[in-house]
Amino acid sequence: MEGLIRYSKVLAIVGDILQVQVPSVAQGTSADVRFNDLAVVADEDGRKSLAQVINIVRDVVSLQIFSGTKGISTAATVTFLGHPMQTTYSPNILGRVFTGTGEPMDAGPDLSLEPKVDIGGPTVNPVERIVPSKMIRTDVPMIDIFNSLVESQKIPIFSVSGEPFNPFLARIGIQADADIVVFGGLGLIFDDYYLFRKTFEDAGVFSRTVMFVNQASDPIVERLLVPDMALAVAERFAVEEGKRVLVLFTDMTAYADALKEVGIAMERVPSNRGYMGDLYSQLARRYEKASDFAKGGSVTILTVTTMPGNDVTHPVPDNTGYITEGQFYLHDGVIDPFGSLSRLKQNVIGKVTREDHGQIMNTMVRFYAGGRDAQQKQAMAFELSDYDLQLLKFSKLFRERFMDINVSLPLERALDLCWQTLAECFKPEQLLMKQELIDKFFPKSHKTGLDDNAQEAGTNGAAAAQ
């Protein structure tokens, strides 16, 4: 750090935040103090801690110290490094696990000589983007059929604590047809971190995966760096190597809570339920990194956003909904077709998928909605018609074969299973679909309509719904 100026006038230490006076900032003559830049804080004994500039007001610079302020007094000195946080980028980072500060946390080879890239840069110029038109297959029927994931899409999984959203996200990571998976863990307990790593290793995809992990026991400021590190690496793979990159984050609510905690420590006035007024901007800066590059690959972002109290009006899911292009709604161990939405699915359904995809999607959801109505009639002891019994049977099969998140089927097999399920419950004339599609895809040898066991199946389905 030769040639860099040391500043010793520490004004205050509050929580993990240290404030130091830098007269040259107010005078406009300091070239090494900028927002988000790094600094080294040295205590009286010479121990050094890494910190980041998080606020500048006149000549007072606020620093967030990564390792905390324990043992640091107002006699400390601050040296600004003149550059923001950087992370390692090269093909050698594939199959590696990094901490929230970008340091390897596995037993792999040393990466200190590998190239570094700045994190947190601006989003891509819109003229360098193209309209999304390619699908990412996940082998999850409720996604591939009903709310297709499109390359360059940014979309969250809305869920609540206790749901198996982490195993589900890990399974998407190993099944998605992406070239590279970049995983960002935010405030994970060790069991969840181990789950993701073991899942990637057991599936044989760890060699095309990069992991950035902030555990619950790690400093909270590192949680704020993980998304920027993961996205910086993802952009490089997409732009420089033309890779189709899938970025996975869990849990963005933990990221927002970290923003709130830092804001409170800085004595900023909260806007809504303790969250700062820039929550939308902070989330959007990360989500908008999703892009399909005209001269490269693509970056697709899939996150988990937990809703405290299953409240979709909570500031985090509420702001997220304005930024992203839909959501997957996970509750009771299933993906809900009514709460889920992919606003880009029309770009691929029937265009890069089979011709019956659109009709199947609409017909299946229509009959499932009818089955829900029939279940309510059954619960209220109304008399059920034969058609109601057909709907009840279909509803039961639909939940078992498609809605369970453990179901894994390629898209074409899932579409064929849709036709089979329709044939088990309905006659061709009841489908109200294009006749040419019925003639081509409806199983010819299958017994159609309401069979002898339909009433029993319908009754059992209604009882299970109760």
Describe the fold and architecture.
The protein has 466 residues and is of the alpha/beta class. It folds into 3 domains: 6-83, Elongation Factor Tu (Ef-tu), domain 3 (Beta Barrel), CATH 2.40.30.20; 87-347, 3-Layer(aba) Sandwich (Rossmann fold), CATH 3.40.50; 357-465, no CATH class. Helix content is 35%, strand content 22%. It is built from 13 helices and 19 strands. Strands 9, 11, 12, 13, 14, 15, 16, 17, 18 and 19 form a 10-stranded mixed β-sheet that branches. A 7-stranded antiparallel β-sheet has the order 1-7-4-5-6-3-2. Strands 8-10 form a two-stranded antiparallel sheet. A hairpin with a 2-residue loop joins strand 17 and strand 18. Helix 3 (165-175) packs parallel to helix 4 and helix 9 crosses helix 10 (386-403). The longest helix is centred in the last third of the chain and has 23 residues, at 357-379. It starts with 5 loop residues before the first strand and ends with a helix. Mean pLDDT is 89; it is low at 452-466.
